[in-house]
């Protein structure tokens, strides 16, 4: 565990990693999992479902936001933290901004489409009316290994 992260952070990221494994094993999806936490409790969970549902917006983060919105009866999630195994893309980052998520913690960086610092800085852009705190690298090696294995098997 990285000293910058708490044991609680690691617990939530480990749940996201289990959801990523579920995406791959049960649905043959790219292994990405996400957990949305509010007040120390999981209020939303998701994994990639875009291939199986034929829905380009069904990324793990979006599914976790949708789950939380349904459970809480609100599209706004102020104070929520999102733990995700892969750096969010621009679509997911914009959804987090609209939902007023307070913090995102991601594992592996995405050097091709990452919107939390790798390619874009969408989450902290001063052009938006809300900014999301970003912490990166928690369980990055494990998340990266999951993704590498998945794509190696697909080739």
What does this protein structure show overall?
- By secondary structure, the protein is of the alpha/beta class.
- The protein is 41% helix and 19% strand.
- The chain has five helices and five strands.
- It has a five-stranded mixed beta sheet.
- α4 (90-99) links the parallel β3 (81-86) and β4 (103-108).
- The protein starts with 6 loop residues before the first helix and ends with a helix.
- The mean pLDDT is 95.
**Main sheet characteristics:** 5 strands, mixed
- Tell me the radius of gyration: 14 Å
Mean pLDDT: 95
Uncertain segments of ≥5 residues (pLDDT<50)?
Answer: none
Helix share, percent: 40-55%
Pairing-aware structural class of the strands and helices?
alpha/beta
Beta-strand percent range? 15-25%
Report how far the terminal alpha carbons are from each other: 32 Å
Give me the count of strands: 5
Question: Which word captures the global form?
Answer: globular
Q: Order of strands across the biggest sheet?
A: 2-1-3-4-5
């Amino acid at each position: 565990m990285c000293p910058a992260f708490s044991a609680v952070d690691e617990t939530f990221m480990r749940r996201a990693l289990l959801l990523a494994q579920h995406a791959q094993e049960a649905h043959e999806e790219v292994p990405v999992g996400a957990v949305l936490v509010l007040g120390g409790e999981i209020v939303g969970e998701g994994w990639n479902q875009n291939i199986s549902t034929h829905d380009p917006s069904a990324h793990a983060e979006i599914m976790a936001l949708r789950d939380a919105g349904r459970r809480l009866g609100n599209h706004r999630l102020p104070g929520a933290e999102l733990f995700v195994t892969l750096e969010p893309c621009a679509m997911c980052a914009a959804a987090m901004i609209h939902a007023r998520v307070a913090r995102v913690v991601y594992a592996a960086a995405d050097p091709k489409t990452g919107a939390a610092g790798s390619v874009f800085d969408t989450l902290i852009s001063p052009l938006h009316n809300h900014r999301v705190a970003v912490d990166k690298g928690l369980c990055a090696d494990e998340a990266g290994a999951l993704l590498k294995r998945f794509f190696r098997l697909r080739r």
